[in-house]
Amino acid sequence: MASPLSGRVRVVFGRDEYRVAQRVRELSAVSDPALGDLNRAVVAGEKVTASDLRAQLDALPFLAERRTVVIDGLLERFDDVGTSQRRIAEAHAFVEAFLNMPPSTLAVLVGGDLRPNRNPLLAALSAAGATVERFFPLRDHELIVWIQAHARSIGLHLSAGASRRLAALVGPNLWVLANELDKLASWADGAPVDEHAISFLTTASREESVFSLVDHLVAGRTRESIRELTDLLDSGESPFGVLAMLQNRLRQVWLVHELAAEGLPAQTVKLRSGLGHLPDPVFRELLALATRLTDADLRTMHRELLAADEAIKTGKAEPRLALELLARTFAASG
Predict the structure, then answer these.
(1) pLDDT in tens, 246-263
(2) Is CB count within 10 Å lower at the N or C end of the chain?
């Protein structure tokens, strides 16, 4: 015997926001595009009541067999709230709305990184037979396979080494990966792309170079700093762009430094600092640098960056020369 909500309610959630969004697009695609959004509705679940949701679910499709209702934010309201009788009753009121909707309605509930064992609505929907799909971030070989498949879909020819290099640089953030692949496809114009092109062209690679530059600057390694700086400028990055990336990296390092000083676990520091998108190896390097620095080091770096910024913007120094002087100043104070 089929479960009451089988095939009628789909729950799509997980930390991999890209694949969650892709799956929701697939499920909510209308059978007749000419009808536009007449048979598709999006409900903001943050404040919707069970009766309001039921009104949306009960509407009949227009000149079609199916109507799709996407509910975003409702599952989060029940996440990690415990199992009080009031919350359980509220969850069951929503489930009742789904149970009584017409057969022509497909309901799609969308969520982020939920806690299934502490979410009474998710538990009640699962018990009633809703189809639940959870998307974890892709790792290792799965990530490389995704990169290769997406590249093929947009006509980009990546070598195996290029796929591995891109996976190592960006990690499992598929939004960033898709954007980098689109840019590579435009640049390559049908030509094959190898790992050297990845290192030269991708934003992630430039960010990695900036991190390396900061590391050399802090350690007072003048020669390495100048070489990293020259590589960035020769790759087409403007001095203003390099300075902006340095300032942004310093803000990240300073924030991580302060959070780590509170004795928080590394993963908590990563999330609270807003750096959850960084691949773990990159964040570990940033954390190591942040914990190695003192408050005085950070203040000195900030002061020197502001001085270089002012010198460039007021025309007191040629941009490239000002950045090289910045590297030498750090070496002298290191």
Answers:
(1) 787 788 889 999 999 999
(2) N
How many other C-beta atoms are found inside a 10 Å radius of the C-beta of residue 186? 10
CATH of domain 204-333: 1.20.272.10
Whether residue 31 contacts residue 23, with contact meaning beta carbons closer than 8 Å, is answered with no
- Looking at the whole model, is its pTM more than 0.85? no
Closest CA to 166 of 186, 187, 146, 191: 146
Question: What digits encode the pLDDT tens for the residues 150-205?
Answer: 999 999 999 998 898 888 777 788 887 888 888 888 888 888 888 777 766 665 55
The domain segmentation of the chain, as residue ranges, is 9-134, 140-201, 204-333
Distances (CA, A) of 187 to 122, 160, 184, 201, 275: 44, 18, 5, 9, 28
Residue with tokens 């590391």: 215
Domain 140-201 has CATH 3.40.50.150: no
Instruction: Name the fold adopted by 9-134.
Output: Rossmann fold (3.40.50)
Q: Quote the distance between the C-alpha of residue 35 and its chain's center.
A: 33
